[in-house]
Design goal:
This protein is of the alpha+beta class. It has helices spanning 51-63, 83-86, 108-118, and strands spanning 13-16, 23-31, 34-41, 44-49, 67-68, 122-124, 132-135. The protein has one domain (13-135). The chain contains three helices and seven strands.
Length: 136
């Protein structure tokens, strides 16, 4: 899904969720001195710690195989062993949530994998449901 975006506010990455059913945009920005990824889905704006890109790729390489995405809203418990569960786990490198806006910290397993694919860091399946990813 390579596009010519540079990942800036003026030229964001235009992405689709893994099932290819919804479009959204992402770009890198600085907030409170920290590099973040801004994700805009309709009128909803989510923020993720940009360290998640490298950290997730490292974890996936160590995992060594396909991993289920398991996207879930912040208020719902994610399925164990999924990218979503890892993105909120006390055992990940940031010791918890990569999502930064309380109430909107979930959906890590929905919105970050397509960006990883766009950046050439991972492969993502594009089925109607139960999608997976792995590092490249």
């Amino acid at each position: 899904m390579t596009n010519s975006a540079s990942g800036t506010k003026e030229n964001p990455w235009k992405l689709k969720t893994p099932p290819q059913t919804s479009e959204y945009e992402m770009y890198k920005d600085i907030k409170d001195g920290k590099e973040i990824i801004v994700c805009t889905v309709g009128k909803t704006v989510l923020h993720y710690d940009s360290r998640c890109l490298n950290d997730l790729q490292v974890m996936l390489k160590q995992h060594g195989d396909w991993m289920e995405l398991g996207g879930a809203d912040e208020q719902k418990a994610p399925k164990e062993g999924t990218v979503e569960a890892w993105g909120r786990s006390a055992q990940n490198p940031v010791g918890g949530w990569y999502g930064m806006k309380k109430g909107l910290r979930g959906r890590f397993g929905v919105y970050i994998p397509p960006l990883m694919e766009e950046l050439g860091l991972a492969e993502v399946t594009h089925e109607a449901k139960d999608n997976k990813m792995r590092a490249v």
